[in-house]
Amino acid sequence: MLKQSLKVGVIIIPVALAGHVLAATDGALEFNGDASAGNSDVSIVKQISVQITNMDDLDLGTHAQLSADQDATDDVCVFASNTTYFVKVSSANGSFQMVGADPANTLDYSVKWGATPLTYDTQIGVAQAGDPTDASCGGTDNASYTVTVAQADFNAATYDTYSDILTVSIVPE
Asked: Is 53 helix (H, G, I), strand (E, B) or coil?
């Protein structure tokens, strides 16, 4: 039985030492006008955090043919407690590709973060600036992404209703 207790103790002690351990102490009972002094550790943790808000669905419209590339832009708010972040974009279809009601029909698209073209499921290489003080960006969006369907791809596509779910991930620096 003693061996089991020691094994558990060996596991618990490193876990307790891994974090900050508070060590408040009470003051001693003092007499004859002497002061009693206790100690209280004070701490706070500021975590690196990010959040994207104001995301909207992007409707590229209904068309028979396109005379130019068709794009839609969404302005968003990015909060980054340490000011900077990276972007990584993926989709439900495993690439920047919309799938038709008939799953055999597909339509490629591209994505930009601001003016920077993105590669599917690859973190953008340049740190972006977020709002470090207000998770709602003071009511003003500070970033945007654009989805573009190329004219040639759309015009060559089979008639269908195409869709995808785009996931925009904000990664703290």
From this structure: strand
